[in-house]
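TASK: fixed-backbone design
INPUT:
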């Protein structure tokens, strides 16, 4: 199960990195749509990139995994809230929902709830 968790960690980290680096124009548009400030966007982006980095480092240092997985999951749950708030179509909900599920899985494996 640890192999699946490691793959999930890489998927979450690469997805976050891709969106926040290569698709930043979409992020700017979404945060304007949600009526959130540039400072909030910057703080969320920095936090997600740091957490993604910790998830990758957690492949070699498993003690690092639980807190970043839970915090990333919390940020993905917040993304779901904002998607609902502005009535986005389900196609906009799916990426953050998928990453939320992966974060819950990673945290469960880290807590040894799933063997």
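OUTPUT:
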């Amino acid at each position: 199960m640890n192999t699946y968790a490691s793959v999930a960690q890489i998927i979450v980290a690469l997805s976050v990195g891709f969106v926040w680096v290569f698709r930043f124009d979409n992020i700017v548009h979404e945060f304007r749509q949600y009526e959130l400030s540039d400072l909030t966007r910057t703080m969320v982006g920095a936090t997600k990139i740091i957490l993604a980095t910790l998830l990758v480092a957690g492949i070699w240092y498993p003690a690092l995994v639980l807190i970043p997985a839970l915090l990333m999951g919390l940020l993905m749950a917040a993304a779901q809230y904002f998607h609902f708030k502005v009535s986005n179509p389900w196609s906009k909900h799916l990426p953050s929902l998928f990453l939320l599920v992966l974060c819950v899985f990673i945290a469960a494996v880290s807590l040894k709830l799933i063997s």
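COMMENT: Residues 108 and 114 are 6 Å apart (CA to CA).
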